[in-house]
Design goal:
Radius of gyration: 24 Å
Helix content: 40-55%
Bound molecules: FE2/S2 (inorganic) cluster
Number of helices: 7
Structural class: alpha+beta
Distance between the termini: 49 Å
Number of domains: 2
Largest sheet: 6 strands, antiparallel
């Protein structure tokens, strides 16, 4: 007897959105425009969440969803306080601006490499914009004295944001937009062969594999430095990037890391790179995760 599959009602919708190639042209143009308008630097770092150590967009969505949901709860439990509900809707609308900008930044960094993210992200944005329009409609109805319509529109706004949240969660947790790309593979705990010493020239970033881990090796000032080669931001190989002194720049979105300790010199990455100890041993370069003892 075969076991029944767990029903997943939203799956058909998500499958349909992931397959919506009709939006690809417009989506690619939008992604390019967003990336062009927001080059690497302090503003990009602020929107990406470099300063808090993970993506900024998800916690901001809590403010918008929390405010709208609280407005609808108040509509039910305290119908005599319509001003409080309206203020909560205004708080949600105000918070939606940085929320949308940070989300668009995250999306634009990823859609270029994954059409599913491009398509799901556009649907996510459409659902959320619908939610904001419904919230504005709710406020307008309340101000006209149509409280029943105002409450219904606020409920509908929450429904639209719920759909947006479903699609956003799919992007983050299923399609992998946002997590530290080295989280599950920091590096080998034991000394592991990575490359021949002669294959790592001075000052040139060199990609190698140590066990299962891609490693960036850099010979600089008579030392060999080693960090995880997969950029923590979206997974591009740092060994394809440029090096200046101790700093390597990711070729995809311009994050910069100090190879001495893996720290972030510039975002949009939000997590530093795992650092590996490196030593030369009989013409080979051996590495292991720093602090593995
Ligand atoms: S993959 Fe985006 S900065 Fe490296």
């Amino acid at each position: 007897m075969t076991e029944a599959q767990i029903p997943r009602p939203p799956h058909a919708l998500i499958d349909a959105v992931e397959g919506a190639s009709v939006v690809d042209g417009a989506g690619a143009a939008l992604g390019k425009a967003i990336r062009g308008a927001n080059p690497p630097g302090p503003v990009r770092d602020a929107l990406s969440g470099t300063w808090i150590g993970h993506a900024l967009h998800p916690p901001l969505t809590d403010v918008v969803i929390g405010a709208f949901l609280s407005a609808s709860v108040l509509d039910v439990v305290a119908p005599g306080s319509p001003e409080a509900s309206e203020r909560l809707l205004l708080v949600g609308l105000l918070a939606s601006l940085p929320t949308a900008v940070s989300g668009a930044t995250d999306w634009a960094d990823t859609e270029i490499a994954d059409v599913r993210v491009r398509r799901v992200g556009l649907a996510h944005a459409a659902a959320n914009v619908s939610g904001l329009a419904l919230a504005i409609g709710s406020i307008a109805a309340r101000r006209r004295g149509s409280m029943a319509a105002g409450r219904a529109l606020a409920m509908a706004a929450n429904g639209a944001l719920g759909l947006g949240g479903l699609l956003g969660g799919h992007m983050s947790f299923t399609l992998g937009v946002g997590p530290n790309q080295t989280a599950f593979d920091a590096g080998p705990g034991d000394w592991t062969d990575a490359a021949g010493a002669a294959d790592v020239p001075e000052g040139e970033p060199t990609g190698a594999i140590a066990g299962d881990t891609p490693v960036l090796l850099l010979r600089h000032d008579d030392r060999i430095h080693a960090i995880h080669d997969r950029c923590s931001h979206r997974g591009c190989l740092l060994s394809d990037g440029e090096v200046e002194g101790h700093v390597v720049t990711c070729p995809c979105h311009g994050s910069r890391f100090d190879v001495r300790d893996g720290s972030i010199v510039r975002g949009p990455a939000t997590a530093g790179q795992p650092v590996l100890e490196a030593r030369e041993d009989d013409g080979r370069i051996m590495v292991r995760l720093a602090g593995a003892d």
